[in-house]
Design brief:
Blueprint (H helix, E strand, L loop, with lengths): L8 E3 L5 E5 L10 H9 L3 E4 L9 H6 L2 H17 L5 E6 L1 H9 L5 E7 L8 H18 L4 H11 L4 H18 L6 E6 L4 H13 L5 E6 L12 H23 L1
Parallel strand pairs: 2-3, 2-4, 4-5, 5-6, 6-7
Antiparallel strand pairs: 1-3
Helix pairs in contact: 1-9, 3-4, 4-7
Length: 253
């Protein structure tokens, strides 16, 4: 079978620059609709694949949490190296936790956190995400049920330390939230699991930002950029960017 690989998205504009970071087990296509929307408004958008993502399940399972996080930081630095400054970082789920860390950079203008978890979850839940991704990938490859079951038997359960590293990255974000001073948008879906909704509320309460922009979407679950309210999500992110730039302009007067 030929491996399926998702390509990163780079759309250059003349206005604000955005770095778009997808969720755990997701890929750049998760941000495609948002990137197109922002680019139509004249903005530059870069949606990379985090390390290990957008490729095969084997690539995902061989990648450490440290490597995935480093790839998000590398994407931010790549934009800076191309001359883009004052970047707004939008992250969904795991991508939002990475955006929270990038917020410490002076070159980060603001962040948007979509459906990001920061509370402890059972390791079995996290492994379940990898299993679901693996099944979905091989079904796209038109693999048989027997082939998929055989692969799962060989590669699962995952080493406990792998899942623990992901969980630690999630829970350590509670402390990161208290260090955020940049403008922050905080979006959640009303149909998402309670732990994700409570996580977004916690970040809202703990962040030290003067500009906080919270939104709840009643028809959506976890992945807001591809759910029923996605068009409103796109418009709200555009409004948030306008508020950020307006505040920046006022501070320069």
């Amino acid at each position: 079978m030929k491996a399926i690989e998702t390509q990163p998205i780079f759309l250059e504009g003349t206005k604000q620059t955005f770095l778009l970071l997808h969720s755990f087990t997701g890929n750049a296509n998760e941000m495609k609709g948002l990137a197109n929307h922002l680019h139509e408004l004249g903005h530059t958008c870069y949606a990379p694949n985090l390390k290990g993502h957008g490729q095969t399940p084997g690539d995902l399972m061989q990648t450490s949490m440290v490597e995935a996080h480093a790839s998000a930081e590398d994407a931010f630095q790549l934009l800076l190296s191309k001359g883009f400054e004052k970047i707004i970082v939008i992250g969904q789920s795991l991508g939002g936790l990475m955006a929270m860390r990038i917020a410490a950079s002076p070159k980060c203008a603001a962040i948007a956190v979509l459906s990001s978890p920061i509370f402890e979850r059972p390791l079995e839940d996290l492994e379940g995400r990898v299993i679901a991704y693996t099944k979905r990938y091989f079904k796209q490859q038109q693999a048989s049920t027997e082939e998929i079951d055989s692969y799962l038997k060989v590669h699962f359960p995952r080493p406990r330390e792998k899942m623990q590293a992901l969980l630690s990255f999630i829970t350590e974000s509670q402390q990161v939230a208290t260090t955020i001073h940049k403008p922050i948008a905080l979006f959640k879906g009303e149909l998402d699991y309670e732990t994700f909704q409570k996580s977004v509320d916690f970040i809202f309460e703990q962040a030290k930002s003067e500009l906080k922009f919270p939104k709840t979407y009643v028809q959506s679950g976890h992945l807001l950029t591809i759910d029923k309210d996605r068009k409103q999500v796109f418009e709200d992110l555009s409004e948030f960017a306008h508020l950020v730039n307006s505040a920046k302009t006022l501070s320069q007067v």
